[in-house]
Specification:
Number of strands: 6
Low-confidence stretches: 1-17, 147-151
Strand content: 5-15%
CATH class: Alpha Beta
Helix content: 40-55%
Mean pLDDT: 81
Number of domains: 1
Shape: globular
Strand order of the largest sheet: 1-2-3-4-5-6
CATH topology: 2-enoyl-CoA Hydratase, Chain A, domain 1
Order of helices and strands: HEEHEHEHEEHHHHH
Largest sheet: 6 strands, mixed
Length: about 210
């Protein structure tokens, strides 16, 4: 009975993981845990969705499932924005299919394949932010944060895009190991999915550029 319960929970999580999530402004998000287990979702969403963020950072895949991803990416209209999120843990089997697509790849330093937009976050924080969604943290909370508060928004990204800099990023936060003033209150930085957040803001910047 207990085994059946855990199987039910696993299937429920897997189903949710392959559902499109609305990120606003005509952008959808699709997280893939297992490429083999998500082939139907890939065949439907990748060619048919509008602007799309495809999260392959911690997916599992073999050669056969990689072929299914390649087919789905090849059938996507070339003029429709596609952002693929990668990480150092993205399976080598997927690298060729991702590289051959017209997608804009984003990821932390050391990601595979090498992302076109490198987001300055470390692999541990990237994984923590990724897992937070599974643990119930609302997606909108994970993609909000300092990028708005520091006024480094779509307008700034548009300016950087026009100057040929897709890797534009806000000023790095203060060194957490630096000594704090005596009596200063402890502040816990909110957990932000920097890679996904950058994809959202780049999409908004592209929308502004097309007006």
């Amino acid at each position: 009975m207990k085994s059946f319960f855990f199987l039910f929970v696993f299937l429920l999580i897997s189903a949710r993981a392959t559902e499109l999530t609305d990120l606003g402004s005509g952008l959808a998000y699709l997280r893939i845990h297992s490429v083999a287990g998500s082939e139907a979702a890939l065949r439907k969403a990748v060619p048919g969705a509008g602007a799309l963020v495809l999260d392959l950072r911690y997916a599992t895949a073999g050669d056969e499932s990689a072929a299914a991803l390649k087919t789905a990416l090849a059938s996507r209209p070339a003029n429709t924005p596609l952002f693929i999120l990668v990480s150092p843990a993205t399976p080598p089997a997927l690298v060729s299919a991702i590289v051959q697509s017209s997608a804009l790849t984003l990821g932390a330093p050391g990601s595979a394949p090498g992302p076109k937009v490198v987001v300055q976050t470390d692999a541990a924080n990237d994984r923590r932010a990724y897992d937070a969604l599974e643990a119930g943290t609302p997606l909108e909370k994970l993609i909000s944060g300092k990028i708005e508060k520091e006024r480094f928004d779509e307008a700034t990204l548009v300016h950087e895009f026009k100057n040929g800099n897709p890797d534009a990023a806000p000023t790095p936060p203060a060194d957490p190991t630096a000594p704090k003033p005596v009596g200063a209150p402890e502040k816990t930085a909110p957990l932000v999915d920097r890679v996904l957040q950058r994809a959202v803001h780049l999409h908004r910047a592209l929308q502004v550029l097309r007006r």
